[in-house]
Design brief:
about 350 residues; alpha+beta; Pseudouridine synthase; 3 domains; ten-stranded mixed β-sheet; 7 helices; 16 strands; globular
Length: about 350
């Protein structure tokens, strides 16, 4: 039995160029045969000596091929992205040697990733906490234990060291079922639920037709997801309210959980382009002022308003509350005027 390849081993691709491609440029023919690789990427691999044809290194990506060559391409493992510190303003609610609590504005991505390698909360924290991070896993970086969607605003806690990271991660993994973790969100939703309070207990998995979207799945599939909600205020005619303000308390923390669950029960979050697209016609029932404020919002009307947890070193229960940001407060007031 051969030993398995190490995780960081390069990927080797082998392909025979079609005979009918004779006379074409090497990079063009190979890109056609390997559609996952662009011509630019192929040219870079040729320059790096990672491509051979019939056992001989290819040194010119522009040479003409004869057709029928057996080509081998070595794809090196991706290099880890190293976030850079960036001077991005942050609203700090609390900070000590172990952790920092911030109010994340809408539009700020939490962690670097595809399409967002800079301008994230991690980049901002590397700058803000420079010199005070003892490191997570031996690397000087902040420890992300939970996230908020890019266009969701509100409270978020980040660890500064391994001890705090482990302790906080355990609390978030437990979801407050046996500990002191509390998370509550304020959301403006379409319509009015038929009861003043309720629970959505429905598993969530990724939509196979849209990788940017989650969906409620059948029992036995997906990951457990539980959201407790309570009606706070309704807006519009009493007989048929146009929208409501609710508080959601999470018992689990899945991607897009509140947004997917509210859409599942027929009350998607206002301004949500992913889960509320089918409610666009409801906008016509808003006053001109509310319609303008919703258009200006340009995001889902969701805010992480309350966060409480046990401090990883002192054992003290820390509790924080965050008022609605200006854009959501403006929309709320225009909806209240509609009542």
């Amino acid at each position: 039995m051969t030993d398995p390849a190490p995780e960081n081993a390069p990927e080797i691709l082998e392909i025979v160029l079609p005979a009918e491609a004779a006379g074409e440029r090497f990079d063009r023919a190979l890109a056609a045969a390997l559609p996952d690789l662009s011509r630019t990427r192929i040219q870079a691999l040729v320059r790096a000596g990672k491509v051979s044809a019939d056992g001989r290194p290819v040194d010119d990506a522009g040479k003409k091929i004869a057709g029928g060559e057996t080509v081998s391409v070595e794809i090196p493992p991706p290099e880890p992205a190293i976030p850079q510190a960036e001077d991005i303003p942050l609203v700090i609610v609390h900070e000590d040697d172990d952790l920092v609590v911030i109010e994340k504005p809408a539009g700020l991505v939490v962690h670097p990733g595809a399409g967002n390698w800079s301008g994230t909360l991690v980049n901002a924290l590397l700058h803000h906490c420079r010199g005070s991070l003892s490191g997570i896993g031996g690397v000087e970086r902040p420890g992300i234990v939970h996230r908020l969607d890019k266009d969701t605003s509100g409270l978020l806690v980040v660890a500064k060291n391994d001890k705090a990271h482990r302790h906080l991660a355990e609390q978030f993994a437990d979801h407050g079922r046996t500990g002191h973790l509390e998370r509550a969100y304020l959301a403006l939703i379409w319509g009015e639920p038929i009861r003043p309070r309720g629970t959505v207990d429905a598993p969530i998995d990724r939509d196979p037709h849209n990788r940017e979207k989650m969906r409620v799945s059948r029992p036995g599939r997906g990951r457990e997801a539980i959201t407790h909600w309570e009606l706070i205020e309704r807006f519009g005619p009493r007989a048929k309210p146009i929208a409501s303000l609710i508080q959601c308390v999470l018992e689990t923390g899945r991607t897009h959980q509140i947004r997917a669950h509210m859409a599942h029960i027929g009350h998607p979050v206002l301004g949500d382009p992913v889960y509320g697209a089918g409610f666009r016609t409801k906008v016509a029932h808003l006053t001109d002022e509310a319609r303008a404020d919703l258009s200006a919002l340009n995001r889902q009307a969701l805010h992480a308003a309350h966060l409480a947890f046990e401090h990883p070193s002192t054992g003290e229960i820390l509790s924080f509350d965050s008022d609605l940001p200006e854009d959501l407060q403006q929309l709320l007031e225009s909806l209240q005027a509609q009542s």
